[in-house]
Amino acid sequence: ALQNAQELGYAEPDPTNDVEGIDAKYKAMILSLLCFGVSPSTDDVYTEGISKITKDLKKGCRKMKTEIINYDIDGKDFLGYAAFPDGDNFPAVIIAHTWSGRDQFVDEKAEKLAENGYLGFALDMYGDGIVGETNEENAARMQPLLDDRKELSKRVKAAYDKVSSLPGTLISKGIFLSTLVLGSIYPIASP
Fold first, then answer.
1. Three-state secondary structure string covering 10-30
2. pTM of the prediction?
3. Is 95 in contact with 107 (CB distance < 8 Å)?
4. What distance in Å separates the CA atoms of residue 15 and residue 122, rounded to the nearest whole number?
5. What's the confidence (pLDDT) of residue 62?
6. DSSP state, 42?
7. Are 31 and 177 in contact (CB under 8 A)?
8. Which of 3, 73, 113, 120 is most buried, judging by how many CB atoms fall within 10 Å of its CB?
9. Does the CA dihedral 148-22-111-91 come out positive or negative?
10. Which helix (H) or strand (E) covers residue 7, if one does?
11. At what angle do helices 22-36 and 149-165 cross, to 10 degrees?
């Protein structure tokens, strides 16, 4: 999986920062500042890499259900991907995708969260589930959001509102925001 991620450009040639969640930690901190005006310290952001996953841990994974969740922002459709854990009540993690869009890679991260008892929700930052194919295309979609922080915040907030309304989401346990590589999780709402 790591080699595939490197070939697709999702992971660096030296994958340490990706695998251990360090890169994701800094992306989550940036998103927190841009979207919520909160600048967490590095000590406030829990980080755990995927290198510690063992076969025994995988055996304990739970069953899940997945679903494309449609949510609306100013009359435009956004298609999030929800992976629900087995059970009735669960905390949630919203995952922000890479600049290419919500794709299979980020959807699989949502599923990994569900296997561990969380609602994993891969948000759709661009709308209509659009996924770019070239760097130019990706930059053209992402740059307007980087230039307009209010719009970026609105899109993350809409995903948060949708996740908050999904049956079984334990808002009292907090809803968390993570960037693409599973590893860095930052609370955006807590009890």
1. CCCCCCHHHHCCHHHHHHHHH
2. 0.67
3. no
4. 22
5. 57
6. G
7. yes
8. 120
9. negative
10. helix 2-7
11. 100
Query: Is 99 within 8 Å of 141 (Cβ atoms)?
Result: yes
Residue 148 pLDDT greater than 60, yes or no = yes
Strand (E) positions, 16-150?
A: 46-47, 64-73, 76-85, 92-96, 119-122
> How many residues are present in the chain?
191
State pLDDT tens for residues 2-22: 677 777 776 677 878 877 878
Strand partners, 80: 69
Indicate the pLDDT class of residue 190, thresholds 50, 70 and 90.
Answer: very low
Q: In the β-sheet with 119-122, what is the strand arrangement from edge to edge?
A: 46-47, 184-189, 175-179, 92-96, 119-122, 76-85, 64-73
Neighbours of 10 (CB within 10 A): 18
What is the phi/psi pair of residue 17, to 5°?
-65, -30
The one-letter amino acid code at 143 reads Q
